[in-house]
Write a structure and sequence with these properties.
This protein has strands at residues 8-15, 21-26, 36-41, 51-58, 63-64, 75-83, 89-96, 101-108, 114-121, 134-137, 142-147, 154-159, 165-168, 175-183, 188-194, 206-211. With 217 residues, the chain is an all-beta fold. The strands form five sheets. Strands 6-7-8-9 form a four-stranded antiparallel sheet, with no helix packed on it. Strands 10-11-12-13 form a four-stranded antiparallel sheet, with no helix packed on it.
Length: 217
């Protein structure tokens, strides 16, 4: 992943995990009398898994940037790589193994320091596959982020530079099901929601629009 000024190159180095096979016996195959043995790769808790970590190279000076890895030391995944417009930092999404910690991490290429811009934690489970929406608003240095931190899946607006939460965009006893479009010019977001009306099927989908700055659903 090249930086916009072509000075920096970010790659992901992967440490290969171990293959763990479990075995199944098909007792009565349709095409033969003897049982058939099947192998299936299945990783159990505690097994060594593939681990990706970002590495950044200074192409001009031909050196590797030394990056502090404390914030992403036990990854299930590191993905959604992204450079800032001015090439000053590289961001990626860290999903800790166990899915109880998710961090949007920024690496400062001047120092190699890493910090969490946004962090989600849960004592149980963060639904990273179905409820994670991230939208970068580059013109205003903001991030629209989906979270269940108040007990319902809603949208929050963060300052992309400081990580400060500016406001909760949606709120209430209903859930955001997904973001369809962010209108940066009009500072609004179009999304799908469920559970808006108590007398309806809670899985009924509503298409909604709301301002990023005021409650005008």
């Amino acid at each position: 992943h090249w930086s916009p000024d072509s000075r920096w190159l970010a790659v992901f180095r992967q440490r290969q995990g171990e293959q763990h096979l479990i075995h199944f016996v098909e007792s009565s195959p349709r095409d033969q009398l003897q049982p058939r043995l099947h192998d299936h790769s299945y990783t159990k808790p505690g097994d060594v898994i593939d681990q990706r970590r970002p590495i950044i190279f200074d192409v001009v000076n031909k050196r590797k940037l030394e990056v502090e890895e404390t914030l992403f030391g036990n990854p299930w995944s590191c993905d959604r790589p992204r450079w800032s417009r001015d090439s000053s930092r590289f961001t990626f999404l860290y999903n800790q193994r166990g899915h109880q910690v998710i961090r949007l991490i920024a690496i400062d290429v001047k120092t190699g320091g890493a910090r969490a811009i946004i962090e989600e934690t849960s004592p149980t489970f963060i639904d990273y596959s179905g409820k994670l929406d991230i939208h970068h608003l580059d013109e205003t240095n903001e991030i629209l982020w989906a979270s269940e931190r108040d007990g319902w899946n809603h949208l929050y607006l963060f300052d992309a530079l400081t990580g400060r939460m500016k406001n909760q965009v949606t709120r209430g006893a209903w859930v955001v099901r997904g973001v369809d479009r962010v209108d940066e010019a009009k500072r609004a977001v179009e999304f799908r929601a469920s559970g808006l009306f108590p007398n309806q099927d809670p899985y009924h989908i509503h298409h909604c629009r709301i301002s990023l700055d005021k409650q005008d659903l």
